[in-house]
Every structure is written in structure tokens, then in C-alpha cells.
Amino acid sequence: GLEDLRRAVGKLLKRSGPYEALVKEYVRDVQRALIPADVNVRLVFELTRRIRERALQERPPPGVSRREWLVKITYEELVKLFGGDGEPEVKPRYTPYVIMMVGVQGSGKTTTVGKLAKFYRSMGYRVGVVAADTYRPGAYEQLRQLADRVGAMFYGEPGSKDAVGIARRGVEELRKRGAEIIIVDTAGRHGYGEEEALLEEMKNIAEAINPDEVMLVIDAAMGQKSYDLAKRFHEATPIGSIIVTKMDGTAKGGGALSAVAATGARIKFIGTGEDVDELEVFRPKRFVARILGMGDLESLLEKIERLQSVGEFEKTMEEMMAGKITFRTIYKQLHQMKKLGPFRKVLQMLPGFSAMLDSFDEAARVSEEKMKKWISIMDSMTFEELDNPELLEQRSRVRRLAIGAGVETSDVRELYNYYKTVKRMMKQLRKRKDILEKLSRLG
Ligand code: GDP
Ligand code: MG
Fold it and tell me: Would you say the ipTM is above 0.90?
């Protein structure tokens, strides 16, 4: 099952040997984890093909091993498999907001109405629920008690068989009583495979109450069979979202989630237990991080990101040492510094530069505020000025740039002085680097 993914990653990071053989074995482990989780075989092979391709093509930044990079690739591809890196919007765009629940009997609709009511109550909304399941004996009582427990208003008509009428009157009544979110529970008495009848019923009630959102509840145990239902639902209603319940009770949860994601439908929540608290907003990134082992993965991803930025910065520094310094190089360097934080700290991370910190002191003191001003000055420059900083010896240009960027002429002169400092520094660095290289060749 999905929990085997973590083991596959752990094994990968421990093993040594030729990289291509490792990738091959790893990909097989990933397949062995996903197929028993009932993920569609075609999806599994597409996923592992992409992982293999990227693993063999991409070069990790310095400081990151190829195996670590492979874990990052896996993370990204799994996030895609489970719905991409967007976050579902669970806050209603306006109130009152009417949600209608649909789904086959036993999928967990009524339970989920209670969970949603609690969820929205805790966000501060006044919530009301409507018991429009007139088929199942005890459905009225089940929802009334849930509403009581979570502090939601309740509407129902015990004994009535008029589901459409109850839904309509319930929404109207609860709206009058000031409910901001109204959730309508329905029957959905059809079995698996009877998508058509289920969607037909949904249309009838929807016509009567005109919901703002229809939520389809799917039992995770349906696994990859969820695909057909989710697909037809997704095609039938533009205001639909999906809740996958009972993620706690089956090994097929991964199959259900990936199948639904493959239809393009939005999964908003997952149910993870019978209790009213056991509802989660579904965030593919977080879900995947949890499967792969949250703590380790997060620190790995952070490390990679940091090293990527430092790597870019190092490249800029090397370019600066090798080539001509212009405002274009200064511009690039300042932007990267903005991303990386204080110059001094960045330089400490670069082995070759840490020894020369003192000669950078002036540059290290560039403040956030100054940086912003300088960047806007450079945004006002002509190409000619960007390429030939010495043009700023002309006072008329300094004045024009100050006006263009909305700063003082002293700011422009300061930037020009910074350029001269960096140029001087780079000259020094080049000399020292030559010396260091000669020394290291001796040693
Ligand atoms: P409905 O017929 O669609 O309204 O389904 P119910 O809400 O009555 O739920 C059917 C059964 O599934 C009940 O026994 C619930 O306790 C159970 N159930 C619902 N959601 C979950 C869940 O997320 N996890 C588990 N383990 N059980 C659930
Ligand atoms: Mg029910």
C-alpha cells in the first residue's frame, strides 16, 4: 500500500551502487506500493516513466545528491497524481451558501454533513442542516442528533416522504433563521454503478433548491472504480466538489484519490474516521508529504531550495569575477540577495568566499530599503546606462534617474558608488583567487 512508498524512499537513500540500477529498483518499489493501493495501472506506469526519465536527465544543484533529487522528483510527481499543488477553496465566497450532499447510500453523507457543520461552526459561521433523506428509517433522527452535538440549526419533517419539498422548505426556513451555511442531506439510495440514477436524483433536488455547491461523497473503498462516478459527476455539474470518506478504513484510498484527481474534479475534503472531528481539507502536497514522512521530506526540500538559490548566487558571483561588471550584473546580484537574505550570511555559506568577508563589509550592509530604491533606479535606466555605468558621471543622467525612480539624487550616487565598490572588490577577489589556486596546487 501507500505506506510502502516511505519504505521505498528510505531504501533508496540508504543504498549505494550505480545510479541507473538504483533508479530501476526504486521505480519497481514505487510500482509495488501503488498498485496494491488500487491506483490505476496506467496511471502508475505513466508516473514511474516520468520519474525514471527525470531521474536520468536532471542534474541536481551542487550539494544535493542524485538520490535526494530523486526523492524530490517523486514528491512532485505524486503531488500531480493526487491533484496538483493547488489548495482547495473551502471558505464560501458569499453567504447564505447552500451545499447539497449527494452520493450512494452508506458512503458517509449524513456523517459528513455533521462533520462539515462542525468544521464551518469552528470557522465562526452559523450553520443549518436539512434532513431530506426520506428513504432510510432513522435518517431524520441520526441527523437531528448530529446537529445537536455540533451546535447547528436543524430542519426536518419526520414521517414525510416528500424529499424535494423538505429540501425547499428547509433551505427557506433556515435562511430565515439566519443560517449562513445550509447543508442539505439527501438519500442516494442507489448502488455502485448506478451513476445515471444518482445524477438524475441530484438534478431533481437541485432544481428545487438551487444550491451554490453540490458535494459528491465517495467511499474510499471504491478505489479506482471512483473514476466513472467522479467523471460523470464532474461533467454534469460545474459547481461540484468531492469528498472521499473512510480513508482510514481501506488500503484503496490512494486509488480513489488518484482516480478522482484524474477526472479533473476537485477533492475538497477527506473523511478519516467516524467521529465528527475526523474531516480534513484535502491538500495534495501535505497528503504526499505525510505518506513520504513529513519531517524528513520537508527538511530535504528546504535544503534543496536553499542550495538551489545559493548555487545561482555562486554562479552570479563567478560570472561577476570573470566578466565585466555592469548595472545588469548588479541588478541580478541584488535580486538574488533579496531572495537569500543578508549578504554576510550568504557569503558564509559559500566556501570560497567566507574567508574574504571583511572586504565585503560595505556590500554586506546594504539594507532592504536601499535595495528596493536601487532596483527601481535601475528599472528607470536605458540599456545604454545598464551596460555602461560610467555614464552616471553625467549629472543630468543622475537627475533624470532620480526623478524617474522617485528617489533623491543622493540615492542614485550611492548606487553608483556601490557599483564602483563591487567592481573594486571583484578585482581584489580575482587576484586572491589566483593566489589561492596557486597555493592549493602547491599543497
Ligand atoms: P450515508 O448513507 O451516505 O448517509 O452514510 P452514513 O453517514 O450513514 O455513514 C455510513 C457508515 O459509514 C456509518 O457507520 C459511518 O459511521 C461510517 N463512516 C462515515 N464516514 C466515515 C469515515 O470517514 N471513516 C469511517 N471509518 N467510517 C465512516
Ligand atoms: Mg444518510
Answer: yes
